[in-house]
Write a structure and sequence with these properties.
Order of helices and strands: HEEEEEEE
Helix content: under 10%
Number of helices: 1
Shape: globular
Distance between the termini: 30 Å
Radius of gyration: 15 Å
Length: 128
């Protein structure tokens, strides 16, 4: 079985919303900057007024790698990518595709979710 991330007190609500099929992005209510990963204080200004806001779910593929040797639970080949979300922060996740060799940098992607047992994880699919 594929691994699932473990939550911490700072990330629990974020992962719970992913389990519910909702991608959110932490935002500082003091300086209004978006950031990832979730934490209790803003990495930009240090304020402790952070809220989770719904993400648009759209992004751009900044970089990716195609893995041809899969660890336990994965099937090769599969792609991992760095996605810049519409809100600004970058998120590393699997890129679901039947043709990983056709992926291109700057491709538009859309959030998707993969069920792993009782949890879900964020992944992306090429848009359109």
């Amino acid at each position: 079985m594929k691994p699932v991330p473990m939550s911490t007190p700072d990330t629990r609500e974020w992962f719970d919303r992913i389990d519910a099929g909702e991608l959110t992005v932490p935002r500082c209510t003091a300086c209004e900057s978006f950031f990832l990963y979730p934490r209790s204080c803003c990495p930009r200004c240090g304020a402790r007024s952070v809220e989770l806001v719904p993400a648009a779910g759209d992004g751009v593929l900044l970089s990716f790698v195609i893995n041809h040797r899969a660890p336990a639970g994965f099937e090769a080949p599969y792609a991992l990518g760095v996605v810049r979300l519409a809100e600004g922060p970058n998120l590393t996740a699997s890129i679901r595709t039947d043709r990983p060799e056709s992926l291109e940098v700057d491709a538009a992607v859309r959030v998707a979710f993969e069920e792993r047992g009782e949890r879900r994880v964020v992944c992306f699919e090429v848009a359109g």
